[in-house]
Write a structure and sequence with these properties.
single chain, Heat Shock Protein 90, Ribosomal Protein S5, domain 2, formyl-coa transferase, domain 3, 4 domains, eight-stranded mixed beta sheet
């Protein structure tokens, strides 16, 4: 028949290149990993024309003799593993033995290497084959130049991003690699201009300062934590500095750059209500774990990994970030124009009772008569002593102290207070329920009724006793004590809708989402003037929250204008 043939080496290498060599950054990644595995203390990356004309990487690592140099370009040739047992304890970055032959199949390569300072060796490889071999300079280490990348795969060239975008990918990878290996000196140049350089002295903050401005570095928080399986360490940036993507969350396992969506989610969850919606933090985190607990052999570029006991790691990350942020003063200091968000109108205040009032219905900042007293919320005293001086546009409360002028967004502050009250009540008061003389009913479709059967235990875990026997409606017999009188049906339906609108939701997620939802609905809104007595009650309650700095959605509750900045504006000082 002759339909099935064995591909020749060059074609199979080109196919492998499709998985390993996506762009210039992926070439640099593979070659830098080889240099790091070779115990280099210095790695130089020189680009011409964004790497399209040439990529040159020079290291001072172990180097190779003539036979190893030739063998390195054979497919599946590697010095990193020798037996199947080695796959379960991989400590090196590269180990598959595909990168060099794959790159050589789509570029011209010149490589010079020496294991000492006496004898050097040079190879020139084009179209996947050695075209020249002679003596190279006797310099310990390896220098490899990749030219004419993708010359024989025009489709790959066509799908590259813009030159600046491709260069940004390269800079990002070199940045992150330098953070993973602070004891290695790195230098990145483009058309003979230095873009990035480190000293190799092991100082992570110095490397971060090469990447970010000083203002961000000053707002970094160092952390260390561990549990039975994992050690984590690194730096968190305060939530005043965010990004619109997760690109600046740098995660490493045993100093290997990784992509793991669950761990990224854990980092963002650790910031929780400190972050605005669709904003992400700046984080550098290294995770140390026994190699037996990590599988790095699931992705051609070795970026995605599988971790045993990953749930334990996720919980450690969340708790560590939350703990460290909770100890910090997170009031943003305004040095330039600040444009706060606007909010819809709604609530009034009842001066005599210190209670928020919606039309004629009164509820306190923190509690109804059934709610736990505000003393259950630990008083953090993270806010300074503030003297109230007025209100601006019925929205922003003005305070002064020795440190300067402060503005509090009254809606954001009330929302934070209520969020923590609801969250605490749903976590601790779910066993205290009250039966209903007349059950509540919520009409649902047959599909929704079926979907709720899987989530019945989640709903009941936060205090609702429900009956799903009627195919047309949900029947509720008991509700938690903390439900506001008159809003029982609304609260119950919100709980049910939160469950229905998520494919998978945990009790913790349900409590968090519901608390945010209810807090927003029942908090004082903007554009409403309140009395001094009500302001003092609001401030007192805000000081008793765990996080007085942001609303549940991550927007600031309070900002500060330093006295010196104000005096500069009025030209009193320079």
């Amino acid at each position: 028949m002759g339909k099935i043939i064995q591909l020749d080496t060059h074609l199979s290498n080109m196919i492998a290149a499709g998985e390993v060599v996506e762009n210039m950054a992926s070439v640099i990644k593979e070659l830098m990993e080889n240099a790091i595995d070779a115990q280099a203390s210095s790695i130089q990356i020189h680009l011409r024309n964004y790497g399209l004309t040439s990529i040159q990487i020079i290291d001072d690592g172990e180097g190779m003799d003539a036979s190893d140099l030739t063998m390195a370009f054979k497919r599946h040739a590697t010095s990193k593993i020798k037996t199947s047992h080695d796959l379960y304890r991989i400590a090196s970055l590269g180990f598959r033995g595909e990168a060099l032959p794959s790159i050589a199949s789509v570029a011209k390569i010149t490589i010079e290497s020496s294991p000492n300072a006496e004898h050097g060796h040079r190879l020139i490889i084009q179209n996947g084959s050695v075209t020249h071999q002679d003596i190279g300079p006797p310099r310990k280490g390896t220098a490899i130049k990749v030219e004419q990348l993708f010359y024989n795969t025009p489709a790959r060239l066509k799908h590259l991003k813009s030159e600046q975008k491709e260069l940004s990918f390269i800079v990002d990878y070199v940045n992150k690699t330098a953070l993973a290996h602070p004891h290695i000196r790195f230098q990145l140049t483009h058309d003979q201009k230095t873009l990035f350089q480190t000293s190799g002295d092991g100082n992570i903050l110095k490397i971060l300062h090469e990447i970010y401005p000083l203002e961000i570095i000053k707002n970094m928080i160092s952390f260390e934590a561990k549990n039975q399986y994992f050690d984590i360490s690194g730096f968190l940036c305060k939530p005043a500095y965010t990004r619109s993507t997760r690109q600046q969350i740098a995660l490493y396992v045993n100093h290997r750059i990784i992509k793991n969506n669950a761990l990224l989610h854990a980092v963002v969850s650790g910031y929780s209500t400190y972050l605005p919606k669709h904003k992400y933090p700046i984080v550098y985190m290294n995770i140390n774990v026994d190699p037996l607990f990590i599988d790095v052999n699931i992705h051609p570029q070795k970026l995605e990994v599988k971790l045993t006991e990953q749930k334990n790691l996720e919980q450690l990350i969340i708790e560590t970030i939350d703990t460290h942020l909770s100890k910090e003063n997170l009031i943003p200091q305004i040095k330039k124009e600040y444009e706060p968000a606007k909010h819809p109108r709604s609530f009034n205040f009842d001066e005599a009772s210190d209670k928020i009032v919606e039309e004629s219905k009164q509820t306190s900042y923190l509690e109804t008569s059934e709610h736990p007293p505000s003393s259950v919320l630990e008083s953090t005293q993270k806010l300074p002593y503030l003297e109230y001086i007025g209100q601006y546009e019925g929205t922003y409360l003005l305070f002064q102290s020795e440190q300067g002028l402060y503005l509090i967004d009254q809606h954001a502050a009330a929302e934070r207070i209520r969020y923590e009250q609801y969250y605490h009540a749903m976590q601790t008061d779910t066993k205290h329920v009250q039966p209903l003389m007349i059950p509540l009913t919520i009409p649902l479709s047959n599909q929704e009724m079926i979907a709720l059967k899987d989530a019945k235990s989640i709903i009941e875990n936060i205090g609702l006793t429900i009956d799903l026997s009627d195919s047309q409606q949900l029947i509720i017999h008991e509700i938690p004590n903390w439900f506001l009188k008159g809003d029982e049906a609304d609260y119950a339906e919100r709980m049910v809708r939160h469950v229905l609108h998520k494919d998978q939701i945990s009790v913790g997620e349900l409590i968090d989402q519901l608390a945010k939802d209810l807090a927003c609905k029942h908090s004082i809104k903007a554009n409403h003037y309140i009395t001094t007595h009500e302001v003092q009650a609001l401030l007192k309650a805000l000081k008793q929250t765990k996080n007085p700095f942001t609303c549940p959605h991550g927007r600031p509750t309070i900002i500060q204008f330093q006295r010196t900045e104000i005096e500069k504006m009025f030209k009193r000082i320079v």
